[in-house]
Known about the structure:
Layout: E1 5-9, H1 16-29, E2 37-41, H2 47-54, E3 59-63, H3 80-86, E4 90-93, H4 96-101, H5 106-118, E5 122-127, H6 131-135, H7 139-150, H8 156-161, E6 163-166, H9 180-198, H10 200-205, E7 207-211, H11 219-223, E8 230-233, H12 240-247
Parallel strand pairs: 1-2, 1-8, 2-3, 3-4, 4-5, 5-6, 6-7, 7-8
The structure holds 1,3-dihydroxyacetonephosphate.
Subunit structure: Homodimer.
Subcellular location: Cytoplasm
Keywords: Cytoplasm, Gluconeogenesis, Glycolysis, Isomerase
Amino acid sequence: MRKPIIAGNWKMHKTSSETKEFILELLNNFSELENVEVVICPPFTSLETAANLLKGSNIKLGAQNVHYEKSGAFTGEVAPDMLKDLGVDYCIIGHSERRQYFGETDETVNKKVKAVLEVGIIPIMCVGETLSERENGETESVCKTQVTEGLKGLTAEEIKKVVIAYEPVWAIGTGKSATKEDADETIGYIRKVVEEIAGKEVADAIRIQYGGSVKPENITSYMEMPQIDGALVGGASLQVKSFLEIAKF
Length: 249
Ligand SMILES: O=C(CO)COP(=O)(O)O
């Protein structure tokens, strides 16, 4: 059985003090959820605060980006080891906003996925089509390329650890979520692509989330679908109440 994973991607929201406030409220209201893995992904500047507060709880910590080199003259960047040292468990890689605004490519995604796995951080690798790609019937080919290139050169054992987030770009922050059937179908297709690359055992084990306008009102319908193993939540992860409602789906 694949353990569902609900991750909150805060994007560029919350100062360190606001993070503290959020986590204290979250911990006050969080009764241990056994059958779901809960992850929060604050900005870099809040990671240390979050790590200290989450110590001893079973809520996991994620970063939103990383550099693929170990160290060096890369002004403004953060290396995998720096995240690991803070106690970071997960790292979002290749989010569509990074692909769109910061020149992230399948090649850099692949390098970053490898780099975090090397230090024991689990990548949450994001894939998904834009609206025009969807309208041109390219959803599957886009996802296939992003998954294949992103996982290139990884062993089956490494691929098994990766979390894939299927986030159709047109559904992000728009309130226009994919239907549960569409999301399930594309995620099923992504699982087939993983099977072609790494075999059935890995495809059956790998966790694939849906992301894009996930809310307390629609989480249950996604989670009842056989292929969907959780959600990567943006806007609705910024309030404790809505995030908890989603985590308790
Ligand atoms: O991009 C997302 C998560 O990574 C989704 O954002 P929203 O939930 O705000 O649509």
